[in-house]
Design a protein that fits this description.
InterPro entries: Apaf_helical, Disease_R_plants, LRR_dom_sf, NB-ARC, P-loop_NTPase, WH-like_DNA-bd_sf, WHD_DRP. The chain is an alpha/beta fold and about 725 residues long. Helix content is about 30%, strand content about 20%.
């Protein structure tokens, strides 16, 4: 283990900036499944008007989940159904937890109060009258379906449930109008095509590899995931070497199908650089099938020092490079992307997760010191590096007196993961955390903390990552955390005092609402001092700020700030002319800017246009004085790739030369802009435009988007994807 940890210090610097790379999924995993996908699309959108259960049966590694995920995220499917939910089944499951998981997706953003009703009743009532799509992924037993089925009403409006399973008898026992889809193995031709696309990612396969490639794929016996794993088992820069593929072919011929997957996963793991082994095993701590938020994962890797870079300002790029390396090797799968193409959620492949669980024990990568955790096995207690992992199924088992069972190992604990974990109110964290002095990552964002948390955190001076949900926060309570890199807070009231300037290692401050409070003499001293600078800060928001304080001198305190979420105080109500005409600045280094609840004046637009590195702009709750008009004719946004408009109260949008104003725009999202009549037709001239998403707008806005789509198709045969949702 010591060798693994030490080697993490030697993370290579990526040769290409990861911030320039977007995840571009290719259809390699649907090879041989196109006919099934077409039939399923028909049954999902047409077929019987009654509720139908569509089941897919196949052995592990046949891409059942991949097929369904592609359909689930298809824009036509998204537009067809009122609500959707995805639920993955562990081998041991809790019905209440599964129902809650589905319910949270159905009533997204609303508070769940069960009251006198059961969770099943609440889910049923939430679905009534809606055309819904529910995915139940990897069901192991008929009893699970029998318990859930009463929660799904049939309002004869073509609602659908998709079930994936590896068991034929389970599919036969589902009462449905559709026959189960039984996935077949790929034939030799399909296997070879899949291997080519996966190994060379759209590029031409060298002719000298044809013969050995066919030998490799024949050895895979038509199993989709095995072909994909093998395609990624050799590093990209070495995939043109026939000798390496010949070695793989020989290995395949000497193993049974049951052993092949694990053999190839072991081979892929052995070829990983040591820092990538750390990153992969770390992901194996989470439950099988758990979708990990990438924005958090990258920060956790940095906090644990798995990724390092001589230039500390580029740690995020290095971390992202590691993620894409694991994706390229097909060890992890992407489950959701952002509108800009960046990866939003990912998970470890099922077979890889099994491998990680075993390797964690063998290599003693972490010590799991919670003996009553059903999701993780226990290992020896004499290791130096230790980890406590608590999952939400433990919420009824946790109590402060059980902290004593951790024994003498507490002082060496480094990490706590808390996905969706909650414990009863008024639980005292102090006995649990007081002696865990080496914790680096503490994620408690889904658990409301009582006031005792302030005392409990006093000894956690090694924290690098902290995410908490509290009633109120005063920054001075955390000012002793001098190693802190990431702070995420959900709070009804947050006050950031001048103590923030002591925390020089801060990289990301993500708080739902906050402002910096200081005496006037303190503000002047800090702003004018050249020594008080947060060089490492990359993300800041949601920041409530006065226009008067938005000066170049202030923003110089954050010379490397890339993401800013800002609420300008004076623009909250109808401002007077003196405020509207006041000049102000944004940090020139910004790549992401979110502005909320402001009046969009010509001065604001000009200030934004001066941000030459800005790639993403999000405008929410935007008002106008006089005419409800957004005129961008004289402004250019040279680096902008993503533009999001949410509750922008304009009637007209003037932009006669969009190809000049938005030369690199790829994604346009318009949501709840109820007064907007149409998208400027000139957006059809933007050669880089790939995606237009319209949500809860006038029908004329959708019609203008479709006109742009048709124009692009006629002019350049280039498809602009249009998505619409009421």
């Amino acid at each position: 283990m010591e060798d693994i940890v030490e080697s993490c210090d030697r993370t290579p610097t990526p040769t290409k900036s990861s911030s320039q790379r977007r995840y571009s999924p290719i259809d390699e995993e649907l090879e041989g499944l196109q006919d099934v996908a077409e039939q399923m699309m028909h049954q999902l959108t047409r077929g019987t008007v009654e509720l139908d259960v569509i089941s897919i049966v196949g052995m592990p590694g046949q891409s059942k989940t991949t097929l369904v995920r592609r359909l689930y995220n298809n824009p036509s499917i998204v537009a067809h159904f009122d609500v959707r939910a995805w639920c993955s089944f562990p081998q041991t499951y809790n019905v209440g937890k599964l129902l809650l998981e589905i319910l949270k997706q159905i009533i997204a953003g609303k508070r769940i109060t069960v009251g006198g009703h059961s969770m099943a009743d609440m889910l049923r009532k939430s679905l009534m009258g809606k055309r819904y799509l529910i995915v139940l992924d990897d069901i192991w037993e008929v009893e699970a379906w029998d318990v859930l089925r009463s929660s799904f009403p049939d309002d004869t409006i073509r609602s659908r449930i998709i079930v994936t399973t590896r068991y034929h008898h389970l599919a036969r026992n589902l009462k449905s109008h559709s026959y189960p889809f039984h996935l077949r193995m790929l034939n030799d031709d399909e296997s070879f095509k899949l291997w080519q696309r996966a190994a060379f990612q759209g590029e031409i396969c060298p002719p000298e590899l044809f013969e050995v490639g066919q030998r490799v794929t024949r050895g895979c016996k038509g199993l989709t995931d095995l072909i994909i794993m093998i395609a990624g088992s050799i590093p990209k820069k070495e995939r043109g070497d026939p000798k390496l593929w010949l070695k793989v072919a020989r290995e395949l011929s000497s193993h049974s199908l049951d052993d092949l997957l694990m053999k190839m996963i072991q081979s892929s793991y052995d070829r990983l650089e040591d820092h990538l082994k750390c990153c992969l095993l770390y992901m194996g701590l989470f439950p099988n099938g758990y979708e990990i938020p990438v924005s958090d994962l990258l920060k956790w890797w940095i906090a644990e020092e798995f990724v390092q870079n001589i230039d500390t300002l580029k740690l995020e790029e290095t971390s992202k490079s590691c993620l894409y390396d694991l994706v390229d090797r097909y060890l992890i799968t992407v489950t959701e992307t952002k509108s800009d193409g960046e990866i939003k959620y990912c998970k470890v492949r099922e077979e890889v997760h099994d491998f990680c669980s075993r390797t964690i024990r063998v290599e003693k990568f972490v010590q799991l010191v919670v003996p009553y955790n059903p999701h993780q096995p226990a290992v020896d207690t004499d290791e130096q590096r230790k980890c406590m992992y608590i999952h939400d199924t433990m919420k009824n088992e946790y109590s402060s007196d059980k902290a004593e069972s951790f024994g003498e190992t507490q002082g060496s604990l480094e990490f706590i993961a808390h996905p969706k974990f909650s414990i009863p109110h008024r639980t005292n964290l102090y006995p649990l955390l007081n002696d865990f002095r080496l914790i680096r990552v503490l994620h408690l964002l889904d658990m409301y903390l009582e006031s005792s948390w302030v005392t409990a955190f006093q000894s956690l001076t090694h924290l690098r990552y902290l995410a908490i949900f509290v009633k109120e926060l005063d920054f001075k309570w955390l000012s002793h955390l001098l190693h802190l890199q990431t702070l995420r807070v959900r709070s009804s009231y947050t006050m950031i005092s001048p103590a923030i300037w002591k925390m020089a290692k801060l990289r990301h401050v993500d708080i739902n609402e906050f402002s910096i409070t200081w005496e006037e003499n303190e503000r002047v001293n800090i702003v004018e001092s050249s020594e008080i600078v947060l060089y490492n800060l990359k993300t800041l928001g949601m920041f409530y700020m006065s226009v008067a304080h938005m000066t170049p001198n202030f923003w110089e305190k954050f010379p490397n700030l890339e993401e800013l979420r800002l609420h300008i105080d004076e623009f909250g109500d109808v401002p007077d002319d003196s405020v509207l005409s006041r000049k102000f600045d944004f940090p020139s280094s910004l790549k992401f800017l979110s502005l909320c609840d402001i009046f969009l004046t010509d001065e604001v637009v000009l200030t934004i246009a001066r941000l030459r590195h800005l790639e993403t702009l999000k405008l929410s709750e935007i008002y106008f004085t006089g005419e409800k008009l957004l005129d961008l004719n004289d402004n250019e946004f040279p680096a902008l790739r993503v533009l999001k408009l949410h509750h922008v109260f304009m009637m007209q949008w003037i932009c006669s030369d969009a190809s000049s104003s938005f030369a690199l725009l790829e994604t346009l999202v318009i949501k709840s802009c109820s007064k907007l009549e149409e998208i400027p037709y000139s957006f059809g001239d933007i050669e880089t435009l790939q995606f237009i998403k319209v949500i809860s707008c006038r029908k004329s806005v959708l019609e203008s988007a479709l006109q742009i789509q048709e124009y692009r198709r006629e002019e350049s045969n280039f498809q602009v994807q249009v998505s619409y949702k009421d």
